[in-house]
UniProtKB/TrEMBL annotation:
The lineage of its organism: Eukaryota, Viridiplantae, Streptophyta, Embryophyta, Tracheophyta. The keyword Ion transport does not apply. CDD domains: Rieske_RO_Alpha_PaO (cd03480). It is found in: Membrane. It comes from Coffea canephora (Robusta coffee). This is Rieske domain-containing protein.
Length: 212
């Protein structure tokens, strides 16, 4: 084969490899993830939870009439915001020094700041990360990246939707269970049906295959 032909073949192979590598790249932090069924939430109380390795707090913002998902870390001294409370104006209040936040994660009030001093609560350093979130199929979902480029992500990309869950002619039941392991262990388990008659003995009615 002439050298020129070979080099163009090599270039084409390299290009294909580059393309397939790009196609295979999956950004785990640019996807919707279910947090909890809404029926398990209480508008009077926060819910602290770890999802995708991120500590989050879910709370009901009565001013915007929607659930909010914040990073569970106060920007002041890193206290868990899930220990906080909703103040009389419906803002999220940190339990440590009382900083208050609006539904976008913006700091509304710093009790210790002098009233006639500079408005330090407006500093971006005083904001808490607010993740995009939505309710679909009766489930609260969140997008684990608070970068401003994802602020309106719901208008461009939606979580997976199962119409039957919202269809009253079907019955549905939500059950959640926190299991402290990663998805790869779960997938391995789900692809291994031979364990079912034994590990779930007496729970699932599946006949054992080669019993004598
Ligand atoms: S740690 Fe939250 S207000 Fe100080």
């Amino acid at each position: 084969m002439p050298a020129a032909d070979q080099s163009s073949k090599d270039a084409s192979f390299d290009q294909q490899t580059d393309t397939s590598e790009k196609e295979e790249k999956f950004d785990w932090y640019a996807q919707w993830y279910p947090v909890i069924p809404v029926c398990d939430l209480d508008k009077r109380r926060p819910l602290g939870k770890k999802v995708m390795g991120i500590d989050i707090v879910v709370w009901w913002d009565r001013n915007e009439n929607e659930w909010k998902v914040f990073d569970d870390t106060c920007p002041h001294r890193l206290a868990p915001l899930s220990e906080g409370r909703i103040d009389q104006w419906g803002r999220w209040q940190c339990v440590y020094h009382g900083w208050c936040f609006g539904g976008s994660g913006d700091c509304k009030f710093i009790p210790q700041a002098p009233r006639d001093g500079p408005p330090i609560h407006t500093s971006s350093k005083a904001c808490v990360a607010a993740y995009p979130s939505c309710v679909l199929n009766g489930i609260l979902w969140f997008w684990p990246n608070a970068d401003s480029q994802y602020k309106d992500i719901f208008s461009k990309e939606k979580p997976p939707y199962i119409p039957e869950i919202d269809d009253p002619s079907f019955t549905s039941r939500m059950i959640t269970r926190d299991i402290p392991y990663g998805y790869e262990i779960l997938i391995e388990n789900l692809m291994d049906p031979s364990h079912v008659p034994y590990a779930h003995y007496g729970i699932l009615k599946v006949p054992r295959s080669s019993e004598r």
